[in-house]
Structure formats: C-alpha cells, structure tokens
Design brief:
Radius of gyration: 14 Å
Helix content: 10-25%
Shape: globular
Number of helices: 2
Structural class: alpha+beta
Strand order of the largest sheet: 1-2-3-6-4-5
Distance between the termini: 18 Å
Order of helices and strands: EEEHEHEE
Number of strands: 6
C-alpha cells in the first residue's frame, strides 16, 4: 500500500489546526484550501498579500503552485480547482485574474475543471483555492 505523505513547502508555516497543506498518496496530490498569505517568515504571523482581490488571488494561486511543486506536480497535472469567494460581486474580476494567471503559466495540457462557491472566510480574506492533481 502506498504511503500518504504531507507536503509542506518552505514558503508555508505550520497550519493553524491539525491538517496538511497538501498530501500525496501514489499519483494523487490534494492541495488544501490556500489563501493569499505571503511566504512565511520564521517566527512571524502570516501576512496577507494585500487588501485587493487581485493581490490575494495571485498570491493564493502561487501558494497552491508551491504545494504542487513540493509534491512533484505542476498546473498541467491539476484535474480540479475549487475557488471560494466571499463576495458574489468578485466573480467576474476573479475570472479575469484567473485567466491571465493561467495564460502566463503556458500550460501544455487542457485547463482543469473548476467550481466556484461563495463562503465566509476570516476577516480580510477574499478568496481561498484548493486543487486536486493526478501525476503520471
């Protein structure tokens, strides 16, 4: 049986509860919901990338990418992305940011499937994103 491995890139701090930023088992890699915190600095609390949807979305996508890379995956391996927004009014802007981000990634595989839902997040956080990748 394949062992399950926790993925913690050096850019991430220890999660605030008992979960992993990402886990890999066999060729399946699940990235936990990420938010727009800047890369971790030892001993300092997490800092949001900024107050705007653009800043937070771009940082959130970079945080997801860091976990994918820690597990030996890339955006081309991602099958499913879930986006959680705190405001329905952000949908169109987030789509523009999302599309531009993935155009810049120069993917060679078709884009991942995606679901977008509306949720409550801690004060100041506007977006959370998780991903499921299949390697090989």
């Amino acid at each position: 049986m394949t062992e399950k491995t926790a993925l913690v890139p050096p850019t991430h701090t220890t999660p605030p509860a008992k979960f992993s930023h990402g886990v890999k088992k066999g060729n399946i890699l699940q990235v936990a919901g990420q938010v727009g915190f800047l890369p971790a600095e030892e001993g300092l609390p997490p800092t949001p990338a900024g107050p705007t949807l653009r800043e937070q979305t771009l940082q959130t996508l970079d945080n997801v990418k860091a976990i994918l890379e820690e597990g030996g995956a890339s955006w081309d391996d991602v099958m499913m992305i879930r986006v959680y927004l705190t405001d329905v009014a952000h949908f169109a802007e987030m789509n523009e940011i999302y599309d531009a981000y993935f155009e810049a990634q120069r993917l060679t595989a078709p884009p991942a499937a995606r679901t977008t839902v509306y949720v409550g997040l801690p004060a100041g956080l506007l977006v959370e994103i998780d991903a499921l990748a299949v390697l090989g």
